[in-house]
Amino acid sequence: MPDQSENISRPSAPVPSGNWKDLRARVLSAAVLVPLAALCVWVGGLVYGAMIVLAMVGMAAEWARMFGFGLDARRGQLCLVWAACTGVAAVAGHWGGALLVMAAALVLGPALWAGQVAIGCAGLSLLWLRYMSEPGAGVVLFLVACVALSDTGAYMAGRLFGGPKLAPRISPAKTWSGSVGGLCCAVVAGMLIAALLPGAQPGAVWRGAVFGGLVAIAAQMGDLAESALKRKRGVKDSGTLLPGHGGLLDRFDGLLVAAPMAALLSLGAAGGAAFWYVGLH
């Protein structure tokens, strides 16, 4: 007779530490990706715009593929074109037109439209922060650095300390220790970047810490949301473009939430100042 106790749900076991098998691939891909992206952010203009548009197109392709629409399907092709048109309109300065194009993607169906909105909002936010805030490159650097270091800190702390799982039903590998480690790394990064950027205003250090923490929380929310989507769709990674990370959505899922949050905050910062100065007049 089967042991009925096997059917009783038990508390999830703590995650063991020490799984470093993908560290080498992550380091090598970051060694290529980080300098290239930093150069594009620094140069700005059409170079930066092209990078964002290409990233939007790549993420749209991965989103469509998770829902069964590859490049051989008409809807899969339309997803790429739609994302490109949204980004190009914004690069050309037609922000209202970009939002209309993004909204019109509803004709693709609710699932694909949700992807166009999530990816479009993140892409438009990154373009807005670079082109319309001050200092543009520094603002994007703050945002991307806090998101990246939150991810790296979570990876390192989770594997060093292990411990209870953060959201076992969504992403069994994520731990509370990793979440706290990522938050601490983003806070420190925010403090340093906000204080060292040219034209830093009074209170830059503590404001950098607060908003670095907010960026980390938003990034972790985006990470969990993408993990939930992948679990629902039955896929491990959104793609294979980035060794050690998976696809573009796997690597930049945190920006899907953090970038729009930063852009909304920037609207409340006086005189186009960096978004962590929101509320100062």
TrEMBL record:
Keywords for this protein: Cell membrane, Lipid biosynthesis, Lipid metabolism, Membrane, Nucleotidyltransferase, Phospholipid biosynthesis, Phospholipid metabolism, Transferase, Transmembrane, Transmembrane helix
Transmembrane segments: 27-57, 78-105, 111-129, 136-156, 176-197, 204-222, 255-278
Keyword Nucleotidyltransferase: yes
Location (main, coarse): membrane
EC number: 2.7.7.41
Pfam families listed in its UniProt record: CTP_transf_1 (PF01148)
Subcellular location: Cell membrane
A single MF term (Gene Ontology): nucleotidyltransferase activity
InterPro entries: PC_trans (IPR000374)
Pathway linked to the protein: Phospholipid metabolism; CDP-diacylglycerol biosynthesis; CDP-diacylglycerol from sn-glycerol 3-phosphate: step 3/3; Lipid metabolism
Catalyzed chemical reaction(s): a 1,2-diacyl-sn-glycero-3-phosphate + CTP + H(+) = a CDP-1,2-diacyl-sn-glycerol + diphosphate
Mode of membrane association: Multi-pass membrane protein
Protein family per UniProt: Belongs to the CDS family.
Name this protein carries in UniProt: Phosphatidate cytidylyltransferase
Species, as recorded: Komagataeibacter medellinensis
Lineage, uppermost ranks: Bacteria, Pseudomonadati, Pseudomonadota, Alphaproteobacteria, Acetobacterales
